[in-house]
Design brief:
By secondary structure, the chain is α/β, with parallel strands linked by helices. Helix content is 43%, strand content 18%. It is built from 11 helices and 11 strands. The radius of gyration is 22 Å and the shape is elongated. The site of 6-O-phosphono-beta-D-fructofuranose has 10 residues, from loops.
Amino acid sequence: MKRIAVLTSGGDAPGMNAAVRAAVRRAVYSGLEIFGVYHGYTGLINGDIKEMTLGSVGDIIHRGGTVLYTARSEEFRTEEGQQKAIAQLQKYGIDGLIVVGGDGSFRGAQKLSEKGFKTIGVPGTIDNDIPCTDYTIGFDTALNTIVESIDKIRDTATSHERTYIIEVMGRDAGDLALYAGLAAGAESIIIPEADQEMDDIVDRLHAGQRRGKKHSIIIVAEGVGSASKYAEVIKERTGWETRVTVLGHVQRGGSPTAFDRMLASRMGAAAVDLLIEGKTDRMVGIQNNKIVDVDFDEALAQKHQLDLSVYQLARTLSI
Ligand code: F6P
């Protein structure tokens, strides 16, 4: 292994830059040449590839987004697109690729591995929906952004004695909603992984009112549907004034937290080490604060498991 490359793919996540920096610096430290692929798999197909140096990743550890840009490439899903990508990698004499992204990006990396090209995945997504890793890069920053936003909404919710229904990202996973709901003291958290009856949500609101609560916060994971739908039913059933906030893409931006920078630095460096060891078709993860690596097949065959004990805890603390 002499020459490797790194790309970021799918939804950007805070900490992706720290992962790219770690990969570049670890590669140079280990005597490898490293190239950056711009615009994800689209750039790989088009040969948007440039050599990176220690200096090209200076001053990025604290920046959100990704300096390599990102994309969701339809063409790369096709056999023809994958062949074009491999031809580009061969043209540049690249023997190994690090892909920082989510499960869709890993499926792409797996295709390259199947064709004999060495690839290692680094989980970067705010959704925390990748199996075999306790955390993904970007989750902690997005979580903190959500909690800060809820704290602000709480100020106005209290002042106006209103019920707020706040929709958060996460795609099909409820991790962001659950952790944010617990950390911000929400009355109810509605996530795809747990059934929550409307009767129960309304009962909890009334119970709060009986003991003198003047406002309520309900968190809805985007994976269960829109917050407006819940707001309408709650208004109908309680007669209370409700407001809806969809936090949207603000959740994806911002300077990564120290946790995400640490995680990204450890994972980015580990990915380079795996390529040097000749490993391929694997994903880096973190389990019990130890960096691990698992087969893409193993990781992608599983369904992401949310810790339902946290959900139960949130329910008992918001009675
Ligand atoms: O996967 C990250 C994520 O932000 C999800 O939480 C969300 O559902 C999706 O990407 C939004 O994608 P886009 O930026 O393409 O609208």
